[in-house]
Amino acid sequence: MSSVITLAVAVGVQDRPAAAPKDGPWESGFRVVASPPFFDGVAALGAAVFSFAGAPNFLNIVAEMRNPRDYPRALVICQIFTLVTYLIIGSVVYHFCEAYVASPALGSAGPLMKKVCYGLALPGLIVSAVLCTHFPGKFLFVRLMRNSKHFARNTIPHRLAWGGCVIGSAVISFIIAEAVPVFSDLLSILGSLISIPLAIGIESWIYIWLCPKQGRRLTPWTYAVYGLNVFIVLVSAMVALSGLVGACISVRNHVKSGQMSVPFSCGDNSI
Fold first, then answer.
1. Domain map of the chain by residue range?
2. Crossing angle between the packed helical segments 183-190 and 156-179, to the nearest 10 degrees
3. Helix runs in 110-264, H state only
4. Residues 10-21 pLDDT 10s
C-alpha cells in the first residue's frame, strides 16, 4: 500500500511521465473509453484479471479455519477494500501516464522513485512470493502424500516430499518468469491461461456442480443464479483462449520490434 500510494503521488506531482518526451509538448492519451483491437483488449483483460489471481487460495484459507462461518464477512471486506484500492490507484496512474505507464508500473515515476517504490514494496513482494510458492507446493504435497503414513509425521520422507514440492514450485515459477522476459506479456499469458479459468471459471463451475447435490428447491432465483454461472464459465473460456492468442501476438510483435530482451538474461524487461 505504501509503495503504490507513493507511486500515485509521484506521478501526480511530476511535470510529465518518466518515459514521455523530455522536451516539447506531450499528450498522455488518456481515454475513459477506448477502442483497442480485439486481441489487444482481451490480452489486457487477462493482465487485469491476474490482479485477482489469488482467488483460488481462498479455498485453502477457509478449509483451515476453526469457524468457517466467519469467512464470508472477512472475504467481502477484503475484496471491497482490494477492488477500491485497485480502481483508485490504477485510475490515477493511468490518468497521469497512460501510454507512458511502465510495466511493472512502479517504474512510471522515474529511476529514483522506482527505487523508492520497490524498496517499500520489497517486504510485501517477499511475502507474496512465499505464499505463491507455498500454496501450489501444498497442493502437490497433499496429492502425493494423502494416503501415506508420512503425511502428518515428522519423518525424512515427509521432509523430502515437502521440500521437493516447494523447491519444484519455485523452480517452475522461475523458468516461466525468465522464458517470457517482457513483464506485461508474461502477465497477459498467465492471466489468460491460468488466472481467468482459476479465479473466475472454476468457482462458477463449482457452483454448477454443487447446486444439484445440495437438494435446494428450484426457485426462479436458483435458475437465474445457475444460468449466470453457466454464462460466466462460457465467457471465461472464450476470453481465456482469445486472451492467450492476443498475448502470443504481443510477444511476436515485441520480438520483431527488438523490445524483448533475451530469455534468461539479466536485462531490463520493463517496457
1. 181-260
2. 120
3. 111-145, 156-179, 183-190, 196, 202-210, 220-257
4. 988 887 777 777
